[in-house]
Amino acid sequence: MKTRRIGIIMNGVTGRMGTNQHLIRSIKAIRDQGGLKVGDDLVIMPDPILTGRNHDKLAALAALTGVTRFTTDVDAALSNPDDEIFFDASGTLQRAGFIEKAVKAKKAIYCEKPTAVETAEALRLAKVCEDAGVKNGVVQDKLWLSGIRKFKLLKDQGFFGRILSVRGEFGYWVFTGLDADQPAQRPSWNYRKEDGGGIIVDMLCHWRYVIDNLFGKVKAVSCMGATHIPQRVDERGKKYDCTSDDACYATFECEGGVICQFNSSWTVRVRRDDLLTMQVDGTHGSAIVGLRDCWVQSAGITPRPIWNPDIQQPINFFEGWQKVPDATTYDNAFKIQWEDFLRHVVLDTPFPWTLREGAKGVQLAELGLQSWAERKWLEVPDLAKA
Ligand SMILES: NC(=O)c1ccc[n+]([C@@H]2O[C@H](COP(=O)([O-])OP(=O)(O)OC[C@H]3O[C@@H](n4cnc5c(N)ncnc54)[C@H](O)[C@@H]3O)[C@@H](O)[C@H]2O)c1
Prior knowledge:
- The chain is α/β, with parallel strands linked by helices.
- 31% of the residues lie in helices and 25% in strands.
- A nine-stranded mixed β-sheet has the order 17-16-15-14-8-13-12-9-18.
- It is globular and about 75 Å long.
- Nicotinamide-adenine-dinucleotide is lined by residues 11-12, 14-18, 52-53, 89-92, 94, 112-114, 139, 141, 187, 189, 202.
């Protein structure tokens, strides 16, 4: 068995996503399982070097995860030809600068979404990678969630017939920090536009690839945002003004006619099956798609409600749904995409989730903001040609 070491510069990984999803649940998990086996006689073994601004935080994270290499000098890390991949999970507004440097150093690029907050900038970054001929990819983690995989399995088998509509409900209550003992559970930059925040920029990137891949290419958007909570408390305990949207009410029209409505909100309390659920209704059946589970109801067992508010509802609508059983073991969604990217870099296998695909998410977010500002439906132009 041969081991192929692959050096990965992991930038901005002391943050929430970098630490939990990318370092601990992906790269460390791949190392702990003995590497990524890609054939009878080859194992790919990631060898990360952590980069960031704060030496002590990097040292603590390295110690926690058993990583031996870390530095605050990202340029020095980039100059090492033995590290082939540059990964970025730093702030959205910092991403472009890092990616450009890494492309100059001829690294393969992998990064968090959104790649930028404006379509022109996201496309420019995609072109920078394409012109330099470096492999590149953007996180599109939701595609590998077990709930979505279970739904897709049934959809591909024709369970739903013709899909008519999708109602996505995403969100939960993010504490404002104004109440005693209840600090916010998301970073404060999320609520400041000037720092790349806002739920439209954050979530429409996800809805773009989810809808494009499952329900048909998004061709038009109508979106309304809101800043429901005007003031929150930051990590240092200081009050700040919220300058970006914390809720978004959007409708998307797809090629093929499916209509998708997605509410995304950090100002709702949850009384549903999961933090993200999508109700998908089709002519032959329906689904409630959660992060991990998927429940379905077929046409044949659909109850027949009769409108009569004068009596107690005789039907328990939560009965009559079947939970789709596990078909396999479902690994962490981020880890699965990481493994695909590693295969892409080492073995040249296809990897369609490029920076150009990522730019489509930024495009939908930007059009969503524009639709809100102009209070009108907007067409989504084809970015493949741009
Ligand atoms: N895929 C997803 O579902 C998902 C979810 C949440 C966030 N994100 C994205 O991931 C990125 C990080 O979000 P987060 O929630 O982890 O935020 P975070 O604030 O927890 O982490 C950001 C990290 O970047 C670091 N950083 C900022 N500026 C830097 C600089 N100049 N140099 C080096 N490091 C720098 C910060 O110190 C911090 O460690 C954002 O772009 C966000 O949109 C993706």
